[in-house]
Amino acid sequence: MHEEKERYGFWTKYKRFATTEILLYVIMIVGIILGIIIFS
Q1: The pLDDT value given to residue 6
Q2: What does the pLDDT look like over 4-37, one tens digit per residue?
Q3: d(Cα 31, Cα 12) in Å, to the nearest integer?
Q4: Cα–Cα distance, 40 to 34 (Å, whole number)
Q5: Coil, helix or strand for 11?
Q6: Positive or negative, the Cα torsion across 9, 14, 17, 23?
Q7: Global pTM exceeds 0.70
């Protein structure tokens, strides 16, 4: 029972981290695309 709760806490923490990571990648990709459009 205790292990299950710990795992849940780990997964929620990881999910939040993954979401911010994905957001950073999306912003980076959008920035690159905008840069290509502006400079070409």
Answers
A1: 64
A2: 666 677 777 778 888 899 999 999 999 999 999 9
A3: 29
A4: 10
A5: helix
A6: negative
A7: no
